[in-house]
Amino acid sequence: MSEMFRALVLDTAQDGKTVVPQFKDLSLDDLPEGDVLVRVAHSTLNYKDGMILNGLGRLVRKYPHVPGVDFAGEVVESADVRYKPGDRVILTGWRVGENHWGGYAQMARVQADWLVPLPDGLDTAQAMAIGTAGFTAMLAVMALEEQGVLPDQDGEVLVSGAAGGVGSVAISILAHLGYRVVASTGRPENADYLKHLGASDIIDRATLAEAPNRPLLSERWLGAVDSVGSTTLAHMLAEMKYHGVVAACGLAGGADLPATVIPFLLRGVKLIGIDSVLCPYEKRVCAWQRLVTDLPAERLDEAMQTVKLSDIVPYGEKILKGAVRGRLVVDVA
Ligand code: NDP
């Protein structure tokens, strides 16, 4: 008989719209196709998981569905030469947990191409404390470096959405690397937390939220990691120093960009897009290695809170209300 395992399964109610979560015992035959079977140890809770748990955003098109955008665990079976039983692996992105069943189950079957080996120096809980948010932050820092923004230069790097997942990991990494970091937040009660992560200054996000009243404002930032988009991104573009670089990661404030091209033309400002979902394998492996060396483990441990899979559902609403700080790790085993 096929091995049974516990999973959180979302299905639609009789109205065909409301999404209902239920814990079920599934068999391996229930899992979708894939070439690697993984025993999931830990997953995490991203904003996107909150949306999926609440049936929002039309992210999931087919029910029943097992959510969980990220997971880390151990290979049980593999039809791909790159992985063998016992290997520890991480999965983030590739629309797993949306188009494909995800990590809120003790077993997952996925494509080998979607996995990366768990790097030495991280356990599965720490990998999920990083998760998609931390991985995205690392990609953003790498983008700044690639474009020539380096710690020994004279100037500051701005991080918006600072108390969020991407923002707080970006601050920790940048500060560890020796950059001078300014954190923009709408939650001043988190100022001590942000300074502890390494921010040297805190600014109120309201100061950036207004669209710039001129195409160019006084030059302030060497680089920026932006999770907010919209007028905030437009404002920071107008405040970049000559040849400054912005890594655009998110849209917490809106998907529009009410900006002019003047900062690009007169200051050679660069706007670099960050995509974690379809990021190529070599870059993924490099980013995970960098997370081992450049994200201090104690910062990660401090930011991490663990909940059992059986308790995850109410946190889906909490993260949508902005009531989760730091990183929530889901103990799936
Ligand atoms: P979080 O919800 O953890 O953090 C977002 C932060 O943005 C909040 O903590 C808050 O920070 C700030 N914020 C929230 N609402 C607003 C608003 N209306 N105006 C201005 N600031 C706001 O999300 P993540 O850090 O996980 O993700 C950040 C963004 O990045 C999201 O848009 C997400 O979709 C995107 N993302 C993109 C990825 C990619 O591959 N490009 C991968 C992962 C995430 P504070 O309270 O400090 O002001």
TrEMBL record:
SMART domains in UniProt: PKS_ER
Xref: Pfam families: ADH_N, ADH_zinc_N
SUPFAM superfamilies reported in the protein's UniProt record: GroES-like, NAD(P)-binding Rossmann-fold domains
InterPro entries hit by this protein: Acrylyl-CoA_reductase_AcuI (IPR014188), ADH-like_C (IPR013149), ADH-like_N (IPR013154), ER (IPR020843), GroES-like_sf (IPR011032), NAD(P)-bd_dom_sf (IPR036291), Zn-ADH-like_protein (IPR051397)
Location of the Enoyl reductase (ER) domain: 16-330
GO molecular function: acryloyl-CoA reductase (NADPH) activity
Matching NCBIfam families: oxido_YhdH
Protein name (record): Acryloyl-CoA reductase
Organism lineage: Bacteria, Pseudomonadati, Pseudomonadota, Alphaproteobacteria, Rhodospirillales
